[in-house]
C-alpha cells in the first residue's frame, strides 16, 4: 500500500539566507604587530619627551640666542655675528681655553693611564679582597661635591697649616699660594679632577678586561710570552674599543670642566683657574649677557667636535 506523501507546510519552507551587513572598520583598528610597536613606543616615550623639553629645546634655543643680544628679561635684538666676534676678541676667553686644556691634560691623561694599571691589578689573581678595593676606588665618583670641596679646601689651603704646604715645608720647599698662583690653582683643580674620576675609568677598564678570554693569556704563556708582551699584543688591542670610549668621554668631560673650579675658586672667577664653561657661566649669570654665553657654548661645541675627532683618530692607531 502506497504511503501518502506529506506536503511541506508553508511555514517550513527554507527562505534564502541574507548576507549579514559588513561591519565598518574603525579608523583606529591596528594589527597586533602595530599594537606591539605602539606599546613599545609608549613605554620609551617619557625619556624622549623629557629629552625634548630639557635637552633638545635648550640646545636649539642656545643656537638661536648666539645671534641675539638678550639680558634674560627684555626684548631680544638680532646682532648677527657680533657675539662671536666679542668672544673671540676677549683675551679672558682664550685664557679660559688655555686653562681648560692644561687642566684637562694634567687631570685627565694620568687618570686614563693609571686607570688601566689599577684595572689590570684588580683583575689579577694576586690581589685579595677585590670587592673592597673596587668599592674604595669607585667611592670618589659618588662622593658629594660639597664634601670634595671641603676636603680639598683643607688640603690646598693657602696658609702654612694646609696639608700640602705642610708636606712641602717638610720636604724643604716654600709654601704655595694654591688659590691665587698660576700653577698652584691648576694643580689643585687637576688633582681634584684626577681623584674624582680615576675610579670611574678604572671600573670601565676592569669590565673590558673581564671580557677578554683567558684562553688567549694561557696560549701566550705556553708560547713563552712575557707579561709585557701579553699586555702589548693581547690586552691593549682587545681593550682598544674601551680606550676609544674613555678617551672620547674624557675629552668631552675635560672641555666641559665646571664643578671643580667653581667649588675651589668660588664665584671669584679668577683668571688663573677659569675654564670655558666657567667663563660661559660668568657671562650668563653675572654679566647677564645670554647672547655672549650662547656664542661661547657654540664655539665650545665646535672645539669639542674637533678635539674628539683628533683623539679618536690617534687612539684608533693604538695596537696597529
From TrEMBL:
Localisation per UniProt entry: Cell membrane
One cellular component term from this protein's GO annotations in UniProt: plasma membrane
Keyword Chaperone: no
Transmembrane segment boundaries: 41-67, 101-123, 135-156, 197-217, 238-258, 288-314
Location of the region described as Disordered in the Swiss-Prot/TrEMBL record: 1-28
Gene3D superfamilies xrefs: MetI-like
Name of the protein this chain belongs to: Cellobiose transport system permease protein
Main location: membrane
Domain ABC transmembrane type-1: 97-311
Amino acid at each position: 500500500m502506497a504511503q501518502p506523501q506529506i506536503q511541506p507546510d508553508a511555514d517550513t519552507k527554507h527562505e534564502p539566507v541574507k548576507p549579514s551587513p559588513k561591519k565598518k572598520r574603525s579608523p583606529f583598528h591596528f594589527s597586533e604587530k602595530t599594537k606591539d610597536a605602539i606599546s613599545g613606543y609608549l613605554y620609551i616615550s617619557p625619556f624622549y619627551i623629557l629629552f625634548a623639553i630639557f635637552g633638545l629645546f635648550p640646545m636649539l634655543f642656545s643656537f638661536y640666542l648666539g645671534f641675539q643680544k638678550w639680558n634674560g628679561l627684555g626684548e631680544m635684538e638680532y646682532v648677527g655675528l657680533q657675539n662671536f666676534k666679542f668672544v673671540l676678541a676677549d683675551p679672558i676667553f682664550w685664557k679660559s681655553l688655555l686653562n681648560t686644556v692644561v687642566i684637562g691634560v694634567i687631570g685627565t691623561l694620568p687618570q686614563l693611564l693609571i686607570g688601566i694599571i689599577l684595572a689590570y691589578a684588580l683583575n689579577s689573581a694576586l690581589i685579595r679582597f677585590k670587592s673592597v678595593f673596587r668599592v674604595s676606588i669607585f667611592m670618589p665618583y659618588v662622593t658629594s661635591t660639597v664634601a670634595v670641596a671641603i676636603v680639598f679646601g683643607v688640603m690646598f689651603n693657602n696658609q702654612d697649616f694646609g696639608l700640602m704646604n705642610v708636606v712641602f715645608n717638610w720636604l724643604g720647599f716654600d709654601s704655595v699660594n694654591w688659590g691665587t698662583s698660576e700653577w698652584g690653582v691648576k694643580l689643585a683643580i687637576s688633582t681634584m679632577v684626577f681623584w674624582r674620576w680615576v675610579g670611574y675609568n678604572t671600573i670601565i677598564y676592569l669590565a673590558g678586561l673581564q671580557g677578554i678570554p683567558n684562553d688567549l693569556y694561557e696560549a701566550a704563556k705556553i708560547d713563552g710570552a712575557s707579561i709585557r708582551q701579553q699586555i702589548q699584543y693581547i690586552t691593549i688591542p682587545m681593550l682598544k674599543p674601551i680606550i676609544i670610549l674613555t678617551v672620547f668621554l674624557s675629552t668631552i668631560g675635560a672641555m666641559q670642566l665646571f664643578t671643580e673650579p667653581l667649588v675651589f675658586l668660588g664665584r671669584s672667577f679668577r683668571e688663573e683657574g677659569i675654564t670655558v664653561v666657567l667663563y660661559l657661566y660668568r657671562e650668563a649669570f653675572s654679566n647677564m649677557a645670554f647672547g655672549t654665553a650662547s656664542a661661547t657654548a657654540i664655539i665650545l661645541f665646535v672645539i669639542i667636535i674637533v678635539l674628539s675627532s683628533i683623539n679618536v683618530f690617534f687612539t684608533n692607531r693604538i695596537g696597529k
